[in-house]
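Morning. Coffee machine broken again, so started the prediction first thing and wrote up yesterday's gels while waiting. Chain of 555 residues, entered below exactly as on the submission form.
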Amino acid sequence: MAAYQIPQIVNPPAAGSKDVMLVANGDLRLSANQKCWPAQQEMEAALSRAVEACGYQLVRAHPFKKHQQHGFIGSQREGMEVFANIDPKCRLIVAEAVWQYSHHLLHGLISHQGPILTVANWSGTWPGLVGMLNLNGSLTKADVAYSTLWSEDFGQDAFQKKLRTWLEKGRVRHKTDHVTGLSTVKVGAAERKLGMAMADQLRREKAIMGVFDEGCMGMFNAIIPDGLLNPVGVYKERLSQSALYYETTQVDDDQAMAVRRWMERKGMKFVTGPDHDQHLTDQQILTQCKMYIAAVRIADDFGCDLIGIQYQQGLKDLLPASDLVEGTLNNSDRPPVKSRDGKRVLYKGEPLPHFNEVDQCAGLDGLMTYRLHRAMGQPVENTLHDLRWGDWDASGTVQDYVWVFLISGSAPPAHFKGGWKGASSERQPAMYFPNGGGTLKGISKPGEIVWSRIFIEKNRLKMDLGRAGVVALPPEETERRWQATTPAWPIMHAVTYGVSRDLMMARHKANHIQVAYADSADQADKAMLAKACMAEAMGMDVSICGTKKNGRPWA
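Came back before lunch.
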């Protein structure tokens, strides 16, 4: 008999009957993990007290790393090493007070056999809510059973009750009675006919989604497999960020300066300074303008109908941030870009839809929205936002709960009060973006919007849609919200009709939410229903969330 080297499998020790293991996932960037660690410590201390109050003990599954000065899982390899030493049948909490890269621990959660609970603190400071929602969407796509909770301080009775339920039963559920299947909703014949025709046109004529390297920041939920995307008529053109870098270096200074001058003539303000490491500099802006021209030309080279730039890993070490580029691309009124030979203006008079962070679910949604709104004569500009945080209006101006929709890139000036005149550009935070670069910042104008999200569950494309209003808040309240989140980013004050904070958190399967304006509440209702019908005709499972503006149900 052959003498094979049989591997010796060492099983991790079994967790105690009252032990609850905790993992804390973080960023891939050391600077971010170090900066955000104090917030995570504070959250874990409060969560530990809550678990102890229920008669259990919270046990960290991995230590604080003195040499790195944080206690986060910082890579996929590290995550695998951590999970190799976790009892696969134990109660497991993933506690998030920061943005996290889901692929660092998705492997361990997929193979885990015990109850899983994702938990986030209700804070806008570091986007733990955003990180948890991304992980939830990724677990949903991976068909992993999990429960989820969120809290301001973890001492509230409602939180304690749900936590105890999970500890004792391994599962906690939330109400989602705001969700209505499209089949029970009354849809006008014209909207249904348009939605079906738009879906048929997309299948027949097809579209190209330009992807500058997919899988940004571990967002497993943001990748649509070709087998689900191709049947709706959309095909990926897999592009390289190295090509975008090269093309950026080929644009001359005069062309880039023409882009900046165009923006400034429109009223755009650049907040600049002399220090590359801390300020937005003129050279960073010049390079961003070159990247804008390069992105449009590459999209034209491949006949792309929309593009997504990953940026945050890879290009961050070579170029300034892509955010100014992204928001400009999503605007109809934008600096003209000529072909290399100067004979054509590319994508003249229209946006080149861009999906931030290569979120392909947002990209498909954005393409649908653009084409449908164009056919309906409604504003075509749309963008994703992070579902960043929310709070009651401290000024008392608005009585409803007001969400903070906030994103670093892709928000178009058409969404802002004053358009380009209401736009400014400030340096991206240095801990994320060593080469700087400016955002496209503004305050979203009051109006009626449609919100939506495409996600993957049970290997099917699904879409949730709802209605909301963007409200105006006093300058001091807007500033409070900016200071509680990221002041350099564009902000939208949103009131979701018939969807409370907890209903949204219980249902939403992504860190991102797609938004588009309509000219009136009635037109927004029609646009939402037409898009719902388009999605259904594309083979998606479609749900309408919340109510109409007047509070009446859709069914």
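The longest helix spans residues 30-53. Going to sketch it on the whiteboard this afternoon.
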